Amino acid sequence: MRGNLIFIKDLLNVDIIARTQEELFTILSKPLSDNGFTTSDYLTGVIEREKHFPTGLPTKPYGVALPHTLPKYVIKNSISVGVLKEPIKFKIMGSENDYIDAKIIFLLALRENRKQLWMLQAIMNMIRSKEILNKIATAKKDDVFEIINKNLFPKLQ
């Protein structure tokens, strides 16, 4: 746990095979639910929010998405991270018709809006680095876990 944000190895999946966002969100939300961090409606909330407020980011060398939903679906602040074997399409944040192929997904489960802003800023700072994105996209699970901990929570190490 970092501050009061939970990120444990159970919440990290690498080499995910998913053909749709819904399939991906199901895979990433399951450990959140299994650990009691989210309500039973969390997955539906994420799917619906992504339809209306897309979260794809055209980062290089790999696209990233930051799906999340309303705080009412969250029991404990946590983050589930997924690295896809093959990217899937996400609409670019703030766009009408532009898409990216997202390979790295940060599924946020946050109880407070100010926590969402803090976490989004921390993730944005981390994913600006092509080197870090490349490492996350290609490393083994234990290494990805360490990379994220080191770069997402540097002040809390």
Descriptors for this entry?
single chain, 5 helices, 157 residues, 39% helix, alpha/beta, 5 strands
Mean pLDDT: 92
Pick out the low-confidence regions.
none
Q: Biggest sheet, in brief? A: 5 strands, mixed
The N- and C-terminal alpha carbons lie at a distance of 11 Å
What is the helix tally? 5
Helix content: 25-40%
Shape: globular
Quick overview:
The chain is of the alpha/beta class and 157 residues long.
Describe this structure in words.
The structure is a single chain. With 157 residues, the chain is of the alpha/beta class. It is built from five helices and five strands. Helix 1 runs antiparallel to helix 2 (42-52) and helix 4 packs antiparallel against helix 5. The radius of gyration is 14 Å and the shape is globular.
Per-chain topology:
Elements: E1 12-16, H1 21-34, H2 42-52, E2 56-57, E3 63-65, E4 78-91, E5 99-109, H3 113-127, H4 130-138, H5 141-152
Parallel strand pairs: 1-4, 3-5
Antiparallel strand pairs: 2-3, 4-5
Helix pairs in contact: 1-2, 4-5
